[in-house]
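A quick aside before the break. I want you to see a complete sequence-to-structure record at least once, exactly as it would be stored in a machine-readable document. Don't worry about memorizing anything.
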Amino acid sequence: VFGFHGGAGNSGIGPCGALAGGISVIGYFFGRSRSEFDMRAKNCAATPLVKNLVDLFNGEFDGLRCRDCQKKMFGREIDFSIEEDHHFFTENEGHQKCAHVVGRGAALTTEILWDALNSNG
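That is the input. The structure line, written in tokens, reads:
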């Protein structure tokens, strides 16, 4: 979902867009129904699935925020509001590196969904 990029509008302070997108997809398939919401159900099937995604993502990228992923990929955080940082990102193949993170986030989400949708429980 566009807008999650760069830690929410290129702010870097929000969650990685790949993680936020994965959470959104899991919520789409396993979120609370309207009747569950009205009954004030505290949890839903999405909760453990999202926790699993968070744990896997955190383990792979040493954090959940966009800037955590940046630090893992580039050795430092990037502030897109600073021209020099934006240039550093471009010169160091930032778009390709972020595409890898997005791909891994999508793969992790897909594995979790596959298992959940095909479980007999």
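Two observations worth writing down. The chain has six helices and no strands. Helices lie at 17-30, 34-38, 46-61, 66-74, 83-91, 94-117. We'll return to this after the break.
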